Model the fold of this input.
Amino acid sequence: MSDIPDMEFAKDLFETYRQMMYNTAFGILRNKADAEDIVQNAFLWVINNLDKIMQIPYNERVFYFATIIEHTSINFINKHKRHPIEDIDEHRDIASNCSIEDKVDENIMIEEIECALEELSDRDYSIMYLYAFKQMKPKEIAKALDISEKNIRVYIKIARERLIKILRQRGFYYDI
Done:
């Protein structure tokens, strides 16, 4: 690929979405090295499919890249379930201060939040998903959704309050 504009476009994509993609992969895999590998592999696919990416509207790309990473991470997990590999990080996790009960509680909390998100409006859902699960900053969300950062901060506050209300109605008292 020797076309300079395409390479500039690829570089811009990498700079714009790299951190979000890493955060997403790490959130799923809980392994730094694997998350970095997933991001690298995903960007190799992106580079080979720049023509498809260029056709995606700017404000929808963040969802597209998040989906790529989620699917790539899940495929990675499924592949390693079929062919387990000893990993030193797994042994470190066993020795860590986190108990199995804490990890189960965290998974339950995440599932409850995901279910509660479904009850929000589409706008609130999108914003809270990016904010809470993708760990994007308000500035990044504003850029991705083409909404002013000031409005995004207000929307986050409102959506957060609505989400907390839904969770409390279900008997959960998480701080989001």
